[in-house]
User: Which sequence fits this backbone?
């Protein structure tokens, strides 16, 4: 397969593949990087790809599996954990609008959760992933996910009200 045939076969799926990667990774730069790696893998296998009956399904599956592998890697989790905490600290600075301040406080509190809880909260409550997908991404059972979500939400709620009470006393 030459470059023209490759582009004709796989580039029409670029937006969909990017959307899949972005939804799973939650980060534009990581999604773009992963998509580039996926195209490289496809290009390396270009001689065998002409036999594929459903190239779109093949590409989506490839990108999804690459995302899952990346999310499970320890180095990626450490990197995301550090970035999340740095962002949460920056977001906690008040800007004067109560609703924005509350959102920033909740984001900060999510950033302070232990990594497994933070990840489950992000996947379920922020990105709206179904429990089945969270099970695949985390390796946890649906029961464990629900318990983890319940505990994380309770902790966020308690800490939010503590923070709000502290702010009222400070003013």
Assistant:
């Amino acid at each position: 397969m030459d470059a023209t045939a490759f582009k004709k076969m796989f580039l029409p799926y670029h937006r969909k593949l990017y959307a899949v990667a972005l939804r799973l990774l939650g980060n534009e730069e990581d999604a773009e990087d992963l998509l580039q790696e996926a195209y490289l893998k496809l290009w390396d296998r270009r001689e065998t790809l002409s036999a594929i009956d459903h190239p779109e399904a093949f590409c989506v599956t490839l990108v999804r599996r690459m995302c899952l592998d990346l999310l499970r890697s320890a180095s990626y989790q450490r990197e995301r954990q550090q970035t999340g905490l740095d962002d949460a600290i920056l977001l906690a600075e008040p800007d004067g609008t109560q609703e924005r301040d509350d959102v920033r406080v909740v984001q900060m509190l999510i950033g302070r959760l232990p990594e497994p809880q933070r990840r489950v909260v992000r996947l379920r409550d922020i990105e709206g992933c179904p429990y089945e997908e969270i099970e695949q991404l985390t390796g946890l059972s649906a029961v464990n996910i629900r318990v983890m979500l319940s505990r994380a939400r309770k902790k966020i709620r308690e800490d939010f009200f503590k923070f709000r009470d502290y702010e009222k006393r400070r003013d």
